[in-house]
Specification:
Rossmann fold, 353 residues, 11 helices, two-stranded parallel ribbon, single chain, alpha+beta
Length: 353
């Protein structure tokens, strides 16, 4: 509370953090600096403007500095991280990125590519795992793996400039880049008969938005990063429906009402949060198929002779799991003055049992 008494050109520190980045840059440009404090203040202001300029450069100038991290979209988080690296001005670094274009609108994807090219121009190397066509076509060198997934993959099917990839079908990526294959709609769009509507949504940057969702159809909400997609769907529509249907305590962002919720029996959000409740959770345990697999092994004659039940084949319980790694499949090696190192368990070979 005492910090509110300090005013900088009509703004408290809370006002500064709640100002959009682009507006804050203009505010700092016009900031009057008294002569007797110029030597101290000017370097600080220049540093702030420099960091804000990097955020503006990667296309998040519409955000406020006080925006909570858990309300940012994936595209916004990705670009903020890139802005941090851009501001570090490091040289001779190999940057490794894993599908940075996920969740980006084509307009924002161009900004991302420009930022990556700027990192490259500083004298750094950039290695990207990517599916995006524009990103692939911008690359100096492309390595294409395939020809399929899993056991059908693991081979380099093409390497070189984007236009030099094989187009005879041996390289799936090269075939699509050449236009020899393409994706197209195979059925007619469904005609909706029922709707669910959000009225006057005004959370974050939404401006009294009305959203009408046709039920029984495949609906895609799109737009440039930061336009309000996540705010409208994940932080307004979903929590509002969850409160009506399940009486959850999660508070949706401001809106007037939800219409048509009586036409929905359940609402399920499928997101990118970790599956399961423990680090040992995997697709088998999460989908429930592992329970059936354990039951199957427990019914084998050898299991009955030994008195093994389904729990004996679990990596979550004593007796079934590997006691060396406690079912994790990895063991921690403590390193003094360095981060801990995790290695595959020698006892179970990483299987956890």
């Amino acid at each position: 509370a005492e910090a509110r008494a300090i005013i900088l050109a009509d703004k408290m520190i809370a006002d500064v953090t709640n100002t959009e980045i682009d507006s804050l840059i203009r505010y700092l440009e016009a900031l009057p600096v008294p002569d007797h404090t110029r030597v101290v203040i000017e370097p600080i202001v220049l540093e702030i403007k420099s960091r804000l300029a990097f955020l503006h450069h990667v296309g998040v100038g519409y955000l406020t500095l006080g925006r909570r991290g858990n309300t940012l979209s994936g595209g916004e988080l990705q670009r903020i991280r890139l802005a941090t690296q851009l501001g570090s001005r490091l040289v001779g670094v190999l940057y490794v990125l894993d599908e940075p274009s996920i969740g980006l609108h084509p307009k924002d994807n161009r900004r991302l590519i420009n930022t990556i090219q700027e990192l490259n121009a500083l004298g750094n190397s950039v290695l990207i795992v990517e599916h995006d066509r524009e990103m692939i076509e911008t690359a100096d060198h492309v390595v294409d793996l395939g020809p399929g997934a899993g056991e059908m993959g693991g081979e380099i099917t093409g390497e070189g400039s984007p236009d030099s990839l094989p187009q005879d079908g041996s390289s799936v990526t090269g075939t699509y880049l050449a236009g020899n294959k393409h994706l197209g709609r195979k059925d007619e769009a469904r005609v909706p008969e029922r709707w669910v509507c959000v009225r006057n949504a005004s959370g974050h940057n939404l401006k009294g938005t009305d959203l009408e969702i046709p039920l029984g159809t495949f609906v895609c909400v799109t737009g440039v990063s930061g336009s309000g997609k996540s705010t409208l769907v994940n932080h307004t529509l979903y929590p509002a429906l969850a409160r009506k249907l399940y009486r959850t305590r999660t508070e949706p962002l401001p809106h007037d009402m939800i219409e048509g919720s009586e036409q929905i029996d359940k609402v399920i959000r499928i997101n990118q949060s970790p599956i399961g409740r423990t680090p040992r959770s995997n697709p088998a345990t999460y989908t429930g198929v592992f329970g059936a697999i354990r039951d199957l092994f427990a019914q084998l004659p050898e299991s009955k002779v030994r008195g093994y039940g389904p729990g004996r084949f679990s990596f979550n319980t004593r007796g079934g799991r590997c006691e060396v790694c406690r079912g994790d499949g990895i063991t921690k090696v403590e390193m003094h003055f360095l981060p801990d190192v995790y290695v595959t368990c020698d006892s179970c070979g990483g299987g956890g049992v």
